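Submission sheet (multi-component)
Chains listed below:
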Amino acid sequence: MIKIGILGYGNLGRGVEAAIKKNADMELVSVYTRRDPSSLKINTEGVEVRSAAQLEQGKEDIDVLIICGGSATDLPGMTPKFAALYNVIDSFDTHANIPTHFANVDAAAKKAGKIGIISAGWDPGMFSISRVYADSVLPDGQAYTFWGKGVSQGHSDAVRRIEGVKDARQYTIPVEKALEAVRSGSNPELTTREKHTRECFVVAEDGADKAAIETAIKTMPNYFSDYDTTVHFITEEEMKRDHSGLPHGGSVIHSGTTSDGVKHVIEYSLKLDSNPEFTGSVLVACARAAYRMNKEGMNGAKTVLDIAPAYLSAKSADELRAHYL
Amino acid sequence: MIKIGILGYGNLGRGVEAAIKKNADMELVSVYTRRDPSSLKINTEGVEVRSAAQLEQGKEDIDVLIICGGSATDLPGMTPKFAALYNVIDSFDTHANIPTHFANVDAAAKKAGKIGIISAGWDPGMFSISRVYADSVLPDGQAYTFWGKGVSQGHSDAVRRIEGVKDARQYTIPVEKALEAVRSGSNPELTTREKHTRECFVVAEDGADKAAIETAIKTMPNYFSDYDTTVHFITEEEMKRDHSGLPHGGSVIHSGTTSDGVKHVIEYSLKLDSNPEFTGSVLVACARAAYRMNKEGMNGAKTVLDIAPAYLSAKSADELRAHYL
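Outcome: structure written.
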């Protein structure tokens, strides 16, 4: 049994917890929290909730620590810190800062002889894997990533910060026409606006100026101004009834040629009922890989691009060759 | 530059040759043939055609030998033999015999300190990778592989062996209704007949009994009797005009749950204008991996499941992390 600790018990931490139950070779040993441990009720019977401070002794009886924190402020500090003590996994997803984060985790993990897998999940994660395989096999080609239909938590949060907004949910939606053009292998040039639309469901506070809210959303730089955005005002009851899930997904489509006029299209797509549960499942498979790679003497920072597929599977190499190859 | 030798110059050998031209870090050094080398005209200027017998000295100036032979009679002997002398790649695709072939190549390659990557291509190959990733991330799930629409060379050959058949092309076609059911995540039970249909285009010899040919096809055990098969008789000109390509493709679809009622669907699909050119492109990416893994001191038999994605890419680890992760 691979002994897992989870640090952080938000949506992602609960997703990891659910994933562990689906993997017979894994055991959740402890959930670590920065809150008062006695205030936290978790979904697994008999598992201890401990203070995050306990981890700092480096003496917790876990094989891998899965760090379920935010990329903006939690992970840049946490992952290097705990990579100096344990094998760790995170889902760091601020693309621009990945090289720095990798270097920091690498230094700490190498010194400690541990493995630190960063940026696991689906994007970065499974989508990254798909982009690299496709580009390696069809280097004379072009890749497109589409997201959705799904809830973007960053965009939902941005809408919630607008004055007069009580609650909000933002869906990112790929444009069907763009998907079709890419799938045809025609390698179209697509602007941001041509690839995705955005749809917002907003609960306004009593007496709020809805027209002003709609304008504030549609003109918000970086988040909405480059997109065609639709805004719907709904009631709190409708929000709860129709928008309480966190579905997501998308496609990586790569098309290229191998000789004059000989085209190939590779597509990897995900349709996810729950973004955090799927992300948690990827983190758990990576935890298995980290445990095994470390047992074999490897250390330092890794990403999914550095992990051979067989390391992620609970099945033996013989079984994989006989039944999955 | 990674120096490549190609053994065998049929459709697949030419596909590998085309792929090498798309990879700036690769150089085709020699094509080896069991025919008279002077009888072979290849598509790359300035590359020597040599006798396959030359390889047996173990002194050819190549980093990797890509063996483009058939799985039935060529590869079981050739791959272990040459893995004792060179880093080798093959596309062995007789699924039931993979464990034996792996063991034979492993023994030879380990003794020689070389790498032998077997069963590369798209199935086995890219589809195997997709099956293993999906099963690792969603172990509580079910996988389905669909092939086509595309030309099955084995089935085309089987039809050609029927008396009165001058030429034949067989297309494997996935059943749209089955694809839809699987994509919905409903995990349907599907019989062989429900998953694929088969369509044959046949040029009959003058005076042949077409009804007898059609019956012989439709009742052929293993190949056709478990499928709904359509047979069209066409002229030699139509065959040449409409069926000279070797398109193929298919989908690996895996759906599973992470908690009660929370479903996810993962799909990897290929739409290929040329089966041998795409397969050749995968073999070339694997040649790069073999070269690098061997440089790092690894040896023995490997499959795509044992290769971290980054080894396949011509791009550096830093570039991959910065732009593809």
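Remark: The longest strand of chain A covers residues 248-259.
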